[in-house]
Design brief:
GO terms for molecular function: formylglycine-generating oxidase activity. InterPro entries: CTDL_fold, Sulfatase_Mod_Factor_Kinase, SUMF_dom, SUMF_sf. This protein is α+β, with helices and mostly antiparallel strands. It has three domains: 159 residues, no CATH class; 79 residues; 180 residues, paralog of FGE (formylglycine-generating enzyme). The chain has seven helices and 22 strands. The strands form six sheets. A five-stranded mixed β-sheet has the order 3-8-5-11-12, with helices on one face. A hairpin with a 5-residue loop joins strand 18 and strand 19. Helix 2 packs across helix 4.
């Protein structure tokens, strides 16, 4: 899976620098894409040598792979100019490689708790880099962000927690297995903010959440680079590029949504009912339905509504925006303490949260049509509700620039990636009804 293009490996000495005073007016730097812990990294001008320093406490680690997830050159031949601020300007880069393989010369692996140095060209790794750690025939990935390798410096991976490394077979697909869990640092900052909600504590928590988000983006970028090397069709690459672009463009919005969800202190007043706390919502005491509205629920409002026998718990579809709003108004008349309405797109995303990559759902013709709303009850959204992804699209009250109503979550006949919570370019005519579009309801306090 991780092809290294070893044919590109250079036989030159790692990080050799030719003085500008000899034959050229520039510094020339040669960095090999294949290195070992025995390579001499003391040759040349120490003011230019740079890269990544790492230390692993685990025994049996025999190889480290370093990759720039943005495809920036880490190895190759380059002419280097350094400005007055110490910034490196590279010119005429040859034999460039965004991947460096670093091997232990000892068959037993690197010495635990010893510093090792991977030499690189000066490079901008702010957008992310991957360290793949090989041990006992398995590999674990660490993703770093917000770091830049400048001439004369060796950066170190920040917060590389070996206890959190997950080792898999090298050919295992690089995917998110679940929503990233809150790590110890983020949890500590969260508790600190809850106890003392100052602006300084808020910014510290947001900054940490931004780092966590960017690590997820780095993983996606790395998957994109992998597809660029190995995918048989460009459509797959193009689709992944769209996902990465969306995550980058909506970064601040997504982080703010996560933050609001984090700090919302509310608890479910009645865990036995079908209303889930919508944490992070700006509306007064907002709750959202556990499932989309079902045929049986809608039929209690519209006694003339007909549906197939045995499909009481299937989501109601073929409902226009007007019909859905009428159902919500009916619920409001029956409950003097609450108002009922369709969710906005933002509220729907808050409720669903990020769709886990391996979520089980009714999409991509996995079923021959609609299923009961609890058929995939093991897949839960961020609020604890179910059936957010696949089965049927769901109306929101939000509209696009053309006045069409945005729908969310995909359906049984949608491509899996079209079901992603963040996907915002699907919209329909609200005056029409569709066989694969249903709706879910928001409940707020009336006072």
């Amino acid at each position: 899976m991780r092809k290294l293009f070893l044919a590109m490996a250079m036989t030159i000495v790692t990080a050799t620098v030719v003085s500008a005073q000899e034959n050229t007016k520039e510094n020339r730097m040669n960095v090999s894409s294949v290195q070992t812990d025995k390579d001499n990294r003391n040759d040349g001008d120490s003011r230019l040598r740079c890269g990544i320093k790492f230390r692993i406490g685990l025994s049996g680690v025999t190889k480290i792979e370093l990759e720039s997830v943005d495809g920036n050159p880490l190895a190759g031949r380059a002419n280097i100019k350094v400005d007055a601020q110490g910034n490196a300007v590279m010119e005429e880069i040859g034999s460039a490689s965004a991947i460096i393989t670093f091997r232990a010369s000892d068959p037993s692996g690197f010495t635990p708790d010893k510093d090792y140095y991977i030499s690189t060209l000066p490079c901008d790794l702010y957008g992310g880099y991957r360290l793949s750690i090989y041990k006992d025939g398995l590999v674990a990935d660490y993703f770093g962000v917000h770091q830049i390798v400048k001439p004369g410096t060796f950066i170190t991976p920040e917060n590389l927690a070996e206890s959190e490394l997950e080792f898999e077979k090298p050919d295992a697909p690089l995917v998110e297995k679940e929503r990233p869990k809150m790590d110890a640092i983020t949890h500590q900052l969260f508790i600190q903010y809850r106890r003392k909600p100052t602006e300084a504590n808020r910014q510290a928590l947001l900054e940490r959440m931004g780092i966590r988000y960017d690590k997820v983006v780095a993983r996606k970028k790395n998957k994109l680079r992998e597809l660029e090397r190995e995918a048989r069709t460009y459509n797959i690459v193009e689709h992944m590029q769209g996902i990465v672009n969306e995550m980058v463009e909506n970064r601040d919005i997504r982080i703010q949504q996560q933050f609001l969800r984090f700090i919302d202190p509310r608890r479910d007043e009645n865990p036995e009912d079908t209303w889930m706390v919508l944490r992070g919502a700006s509306a007064r005491n907002a709750y959202i339905g556990y499932t989309p509205v079902t045929n049986a629920e809608y039929a209690r409002f519209n006694t003339g509504f007909m549906y197939d026998r045995g499909k009481d718990d299937y989501p109601v579809v073929g409902i226009s925006i007007k019909d859905a709003e009428a159902y919500c108004d009916w619920l409001s008349t029956k409950d003097s303490g609450h108002n009922y309405r369709l969710p906005t797109e933002e509220e729907w995303v808050l409720a669903a949260g990020h769709m886990p990559k391996d979520v089980s759902m009714n999409s991509g013709h996995a079923e021959s049509g609609l299923t009961a709303v609890d058929a995939y009850a093991q897949s839960k959204g961020a609020c604890g509700g179910i059936d957010f992804w696949g089965n049927c699209w769901e109306w929101t009250s939000s509209t696009d620039n053309n006045g069409l109503y945005i729908i969310k979550g995909g359906s049984w006949d949608s491509k899996r990636d079209d079901c992603r919570s963040e996907k915002s370019d699907d919209a329909r005519n609200g005056s029409q009804s569709y066989a694969n579009v249903g709706f879910r309801v928001i409940r707020t306090d009336s006072n």
